[in-house]
Amino acid sequence: MSLPDFDHPMAITDTDIDAVRLREHLFDHSAGALVTFEGWVRDHNEGRNVISLDYEVYRPLAIAEGARIIAEVSQRVGVRQVLAVHREGALELGGCAVWVGVTSAHRDEAFVACREIIDRIKVELPIWKKEYYTDGDSGWVNCERCASHGHSHGHDHTHAHR
Amino acid sequence: MSLPDFDHPMAITDTDIDAVRLREHLFDHSAGALVTFEGWVRDHNEGRNVISLDYEVYRPLAIAEGARIIAEVSQRVGVRQVLAVHREGALELGGCAVWVGVTSAHRDEAFVACREIIDRIKVELPIWKKEYYTDGDSGWVNCERCASHGHSHGHDHTHAHR
Amino acid sequence: MKTVTVNYFALFRDRAGCSSEQVSTSASDALALFTQLRERHGTDDPRGHCKVAVNDVMADWDIEIQDGDVVLFFPPVAGG
Amino acid sequence: MKTVTVNYFALFRDRAGCSSEQVSTSASDALALFTQLRERHGTDDPRGHCKVAVNDVMADWDIEIQDGDVVLFFPPVAGG
Questions:
Q1: Nearest by CB to D79, which of B122, B140, B150?
Q2: Helix axis angle, B59-77 relative to B107-124, nearest 10°?
Q3: 3-class secondary structure for C7-67?
Q4: What's the CA gap between A50 and D12, in Å, rounded?
Q5: Rounded (5°) CA angle A9-A14-A17
Q6: Alpha-carbon distance A9 to A71, whole Å?
Q7: Does A100 touch chain C (CB under 8 A)?
């Protein structure tokens, strides 16, 4: 897969996310805490039975925006290192869609930064999720309703899926 | 190592914590989020250079209190599964002292539960940490000052080390 | 009139039936260009839930559109 | 007089020079027993930072002490 490093902490990959290798890359004798988040493909969403997902990613801006978010949060919160990877393409049930790992001297900073980074990855990066359901239907998550309403309704609705 | 399972979610081990195996044990097609916390042996604490640690654990109550905390938090917050392991005995720099993993349908619950569980493991379980320093000195973390003062000063001081 | 390249993503691409097209426009800003193309992407007002980037930089909807720009229209995102 | 088993941990064990001892006591509760043994564990008042367990159950400092109890004195903990 495309691996992130500390100079390029946000990566997009079209192959399996290797959580084991990512964790090892964060090993650090001056860090006392590691917090990781993984988003997995769940078998249900909003009452429908999901069988697979497809992520579309606009790589140039997803990587740039991800790196910008990570740099901003890292500096403000005060952490050691951050790595993040988001999947592109088709995922099956149980697949890892996104991985974020944060190290810090003390645990509070790692928890705060990890949470803020995944929250922002989900709403600021140009990434779109198409769900395929057991009934044969499919759809872009959160897109149809928002776009067809065509009004400015703020972010509550747009970001309802997590 | 002594592995936890969903009926016995808190384990104590005197061998290396296998974070890879613990994570895999949490795989779950109905979970959309995994949050993990790891505490690592850091090369410094309160301005002193640490070379190793020794954890003393009173196993019967550490396991029982850990399981009680996990059950209480899991039910209140609403998560899928929790596993937690704490080391006993000697650890070198970079060693993993404690691992907590939480799965849930949505990420908020996993973050909240993981944070509360590690916070409480650190202050409610009968576990004591002895630090060994590069200058040859050693000491029970937080014990000497608290116990010799012999007064009731609340938890701020006792829990300053994370 | 200016000529710009418009790129559509996800739902917008499905609706437009293409991922990229050349557009002649007199639109002064990105919002006006988006409105001009409403029959293509199917959305009246993008503000608050859709995003725009110009020449691979995220932009506000009032960004001025210049001849030769590459304009990216992003429907509501859903990463993770 | 009652006879109880007292177990010391970590710093308390280092100070007492043993991990367990039989103690004859007239103390009615755990706090009184702890105070009786202050020369052993070196602490005047355990409340707020030390903990006690009786017969492998966490307890409050005012728990009644009975003949044959196993009393565990825990100095301030520091897991993780």
A1: B122
A2: 150
A3: EECHHHHHHHCCCEEEEEECCCEHHHHHHHCHHHHCCCCCCCCCEEEECCEEECCCCECCC
A4: 57
A5: 60
A6: 9
A7: no
Q: Which residues contact D57 (CB under 8 A, 6 or more apart)?
A: none
H or E stretch covering B127: strand B127-133
DSSP H/E element including A114: helix A107-124
In single-letter form, the type of residue at position C39 comes to E
CB < 8 Å from A in window 12-71 of C: 12, 14, 41-45, 47-51, 53, 56, 58
B38/A43 touch (CB, cutoff 8 Å), yes or no: no
* DSSP calls for B55-71: EEE-HHHHHHHHHHHHH
Partner-chain residue, chosen from B65, B144, B158, that has the shortest CB–CB distance to D11: B144
Residues in C closer than 8 angstroms to A56, CB to CB, are: 9-10
ipTM comes to: 0.91
pTM: 0.91
Whose tokens are 């044959």? That residue is D68
As given in the structure block, the two tokens for residue D71 are 């009393």
Task: Select the residue of A60, A118, A142 nearest C78 (Cβ to Cβ).
Answer: A142
Q: Which helix (H) or strand (E) holds B40?
A: strand B33-40
Contacts across the A-C interface (CB distance below 8 Å) = 100
- Contact between C10 and A56 using a beta-carbon 8 Å cutoff: yes
Q: What is the full DSSP assignment across D13-71?
A: HHHHTSSEEEEEE--SBHHHHHHHTHHHH--S--TTT-EEEETTEEE-TTPBP-TT-EE
Residuewise pLDDT in 10s, chain B (162 residues): 678 999 999 999 999 999 999 999 999 999 999 999 999 999 998 889 999 999 999 999 999 999 999 999 999 999 999 999 999 999 999 999 999 999 999 999 999 999 999 999 999 999 999 999 999 999 998 744 454 544 433 333 333 333
